[in-house]
Write a structure and sequence with these properties.
single chain; 123 residues; alpha+beta; Arc Repressor Mutant, subunit A; three-stranded antiparallel beta sheet; 6 helices; 3 strands; DNA-binding
Length: 123
Amino acid sequence: MAPPIGRLAAAPSDYVPPELPPLEPLRRTLRAVSGKWKLEILCTLIHGPRRFTEIRRAIPGVTHHMLAAQLREMEADGLLARHAYDEMPPRVEYELTAAARDLKPVAEALRIWGETHGGARAD
């Protein structure tokens, strides 16, 4: 009989490590939200659609060029929908897709972790 998974057996050579969850879904998620400004953009748009200038004002320090690049990447990754309105002056709004709205609890958990542990630095 094989030893239980994740438990030590009679001999160390009989140890069977626990089955690890697949990492590829985590890698895809991290690729989609990694970037200096993407989580801040996501948190800004959780409250509803915003125009480019509103997003830029809500995120201190982001440059026009960097914000535009991050918005394009997020749109390509299916996290944002870009709506251009045919009016003068031109108006463009960005809003989260359903997939991005599913990240709200993740962003909230990261915020809470930052409040609790963000000041501590591991040496």
